[in-house]
Write a structure and sequence with these properties.
Elements (H helix, E strand, L loop, with lengths): L4 E8 L12 H26 L7 E5 L1 H7 L2 H19 L6 H20 L4 H10 L3 E6 L13 H19 L5 E3 L9 H7 L4 E4 L1 H5 L13 E2 L5 E4 L2 H8 L18 H4 L2 H6 L30 H27 L7 E7 L10 H11 L6 E2 L2 H7 L4 E2 L23 H17 L9 H14 L2 H9 L3 H23 L6 H10 L16
Parallel strand pairs: 1-2, 1-8, 1-9, 2-3, 3-4, 4-5, 5-7, 6-10
Antiparallel strand pairs: 6-7
Helix pairs in contact: 1-4, 1-5, 1-13, 3-4, 12-13, 15-16, 15-18, 16-18, 17-18
Length: 521
């Protein structure tokens, strides 16, 4: 075996996109992620774990909002129909893309069968893989709040962390030790709140370690530790860029499936309405290949699954060979075994890059042959008992390691709203004379506050995609928060039907606790 280890870390997350009515755009986001990413990812890991010749190991962060969606019975009951509609569209499609149609039908049928066999219990399947030590499950902040922008009220940051830990314990029967910090964003002192919440390790962008004080002796290739006892791992760009980049990396291979050419854009409004969709939007039916970076969408060629399979095996071979070269080179200058940290958004594997799960499968199959040991973050800490004491640098995995993607002219207005709402929540939760009858209302206000803090909406506002939806979500949760808080402040009686409707719609975090927002003396 090559001296050194490779840790693949996946960040599995969706904002809380539960919608009251079926057929919404937000629901599509979730169901496409199920069919293209999470079900195939589980299938890949389970198949690898059953093989005597493979040692699959990954670290995966499952965000509390994603877990809420995975466990939602209403959404579970809608998924089968969602897949069935797409199969019916494929069955009636008149096209020359026969191979692509047959392949996609087979894929959807297999995912639906996988769903039925476990009765939609994906959380249970992740839990079993953790028991088998195939995966190490991390938590995330409760609603993926961008923590450096919430720091004006430290209690708001604590509530994001502690609500997440409580939810993780409820679902997995054990407390998480690691966390995927939203957007890998860190600020000075965050480690203290992490330690207080029982969290002991996290991944940062490379800037977080390379600019640490003092500068780490081994750079990105060994974890560091703060005086609060929290370890941090740094993202290695050499290990991530070939997989991450759609233009310069493997996902840009001409034979791979084209993400942006979707049948939802090609069908007429009349045909979309027949399947219950009012306007043009992606259906998750993609039948074309990238062809080339310069080929326009309308000129993309038919997807050939056999050619794609050949390419993904070659790319996996190349990836492992390059990591081996990297480890051999590092070994010469390090007194400990080098560790390569390769973190990615989980939805890269299957959703953005359709062949991604196959790529992972080949890594599991071929890693031993190449002499590369796959490892989880938790296991790597056991192998490195002595860590260098350093203070990580404030950073994120945004461009240049800065915070400006989540704080700019398109979304800066939200920060003041978070601060005002956070102060109000902390004030009420710190009141020692809270009436028992108000706890239910305050808890729901806490859910609304957490939901409006999601960094996803800030990201969308900056990216310029579905910005109206993002604003609606932020303002809806803020409106509900202030209605609930003002009921307490003004000592008025709330309409029980309205409260029940809000609780029914935003029904996550059943063990939420107002103590998490309480100001410490």
């Amino acid at each position: 075996m090559t001296k050194g280890n490779l840790a693949i870390v996946l960040h599995a997350h969706l904002p809380y996109v539960r919608a009251k009515e079926p057929g919404s755009l937000e629901e599509d986001w979730f169901f496409q992620a199920l069919a293209e990413c999470y079900l195939p990812l589980l299938e890949t890991l389970e198949n690898a774990s059953r093989s005597k010749d493979q040692s699959p190991k990954i670290t995966i962060g499952l965000s509390p909002t994603l877990l809420s969606l995975l466990g939602d019975e209403v959404l579970k009951n809608r998924f089968e129909e969602w897949v069935t509609i797409r199969l019916e569209v494929l069955n009636t499609l008149k096209t020359d893309s026969i191979k692509a149609v047959l392949h996609l039908k087979g894929h959807l049928k297999r995912q639906l069968e996988s769903w039925k066999i476990c009765q939609g219990d994906l959380i249970g399947r992740f839990k079993k893989l953790q028991t088998l030590e195939v995966i190490d499950i991390l938590t995330c902040a409760a609603t993926h709040g961008y923590l450096p922008l919430l720091r004006e009220n430290p209690e708001a940051v604590r509530a994001q962390l502690k609500t997440a830990v409580t939810e993780h314990k409820r679902l997995f029967m054990s407390a998480p030790l690691g966390i995927w910090l939203p957007e890998c964003a860190y600020y000075e002192g965050l480690d203290e709140l992490m330690a207080e919440s029982g969290l002991r390790y996290a991944v940062l962008d490379g800037h977080g370690l390379l600019n640490a004080d003092p500068r780490p002796r081994y750079g990105l290739y060994a974890p560091i530790c703060t005086r609060k006892g929290v370890a941090f791992f740094g993202r290695d760009s050499e290990s991530t860029l070939p997989v991450w980049s759609a233009r310069d990396g493997y996902p840009g291979n001409p034979s791979y499936r084209e993400f942006h050419r979707d049948l939802g854009w090609d069908l007429s409004i009349e045909n979309l309405k027949k399947i219950g969709i009012k306007g043009k939007r992606p259906l998750g039916i993609k039948l074309f290949k990238i062809t080339s970076q310069n080929t326009s969408l309308e000129n993309k060629q038919e997807y050939d699954p056999e050619a794609a399979n050949e390419s993904v095996e070659k790319d996996a071979d190349n990836y492992l060979k390059e990591r081996k070269k990297q480890l051999i080179k590092l070994e010469k200058s390090m007194q400990i075994e080098p560790l390569l940290i390769a973190p990615f958004d989980a939805e890269l594997f299957g959703h953005w890059w359709f062949e991604g799960p196959k790529f992972l499968s080949h890594l599991f199959i071929k890693s031993k042959k190449e002499g590369i040991k796959l490892i989880t973050l938790k296991e790597s800490l056991k192998l490195t008992p002595k860590l260098q004491l350093c203070n990580p640098s404030p950073s994120s995995w945004g461009q240049g390691g800065f915070h400006n993607y989540w704080l700019n002219k398109s979304n800066a207005w939200i920060v003041n709203e978070w601060s005002k709402a956070g102060r109000a929540m902390v004030s009420i939760c710190s009141d020692s004379l809270i009436e028992e009858s108000n706890i239910k209302i305050i808890n729901q206000a806490g859910r609304e506050l957490l939901l409006c803090q999601s960094s996803d909406w800030s990201f969308i506002l900056k990216a310029g995609t579905t910005t109206e939806l993002a604003r609606e979500r932020i303002n809806l949760h803020l409106k509900r928060f202030w209605m609930l808080i003002n009921t307490i402040k003004n000592n008025t009686i709330i309409n029980e039907k309205i409260l029940e409707e809000i609780e029914k719609e935003d029904c996550l975090f059943p063990l939420i606790s107002l103590i998490d927002w309480e100001k410490k003396s």
